[in-house]
Amino acid sequence: xxxxxxxxxxxxxxxxxxxxxxxxxxxxxxxxxxxIAGAFFWLLSLLLSSxxxxxxxxxxxxxxxxxxxxxxIFGVIFSVLLQEVFRYTYYRLLRKANEGLAAISDDxxxxxxxxxxxxxxxxxxxxxxxxFSMINILSDSLGPGTVGIFGDSQYYFxxxxxxxxxxxxxxxxxxxxxxxxxxxxxxxVIGVVVMLHLVVSCLxxxxxxxxxxxxPVYVIMVLMAIWAFFSAGGSLSSITQxxxxxxxxxxxx
Length: 253
Description:
Blueprint: H1 2-24, H2 29-58, H3 65-104, H4 114-141, H5 156-183, H6 187-203, H7 210-231, H8 236-252
Helix pairs in contact: 1-4, 1-5, 2-3, 2-4, 3-4, 3-6, 4-5, 5-6, 5-7
């Protein structure tokens, strides 16, 4: 049973991200580099925010539960803000690198567009975020022990997997929208991304009240997916053309 929980939660949490990597990134070395660098930037933000939170906890009274709760909330908010600062830093770095690639190419054009960089960088952020969110939980799912034996929720592993899936995809969508806001100097777009990131992260503080945290996160994820689709250049006509092409292929076969 523990192996079934382990593989089931692992496939739920990382299956879509792994599929996106295999079908859209793995064949392009430049995209792989951008994804790994994006994961590294997220890791740096986590390292710095963890260091600040660790110092704050050690300098405070460990027996004061309300203070420790406040420090946890502070750590979440500070970590989100730092992640977005590193996302912007990574955008500036990629923009400079893209200009350099265009300068040395024969036709003065880059081999990768800003929208593609935003997607790959966002997925790198999401994969690393999901890995750190889920790896210890997957390790615990192998046992020994029984979830909920002392009255706790029996859905801890499955809800954690679905939350990790949502966060991974949200980082991808946030990356696309964030980069578009930077490109067009729409600072309100960047502000919305930061605010939604804060909302999603703070919703996790409601756990183990999963009915209060998971549904709003998925609503935000669907809305961000639609926004990212149009930010990347999608349109209703392109969806219609895709559906009609699929229907014609089915009919011809």
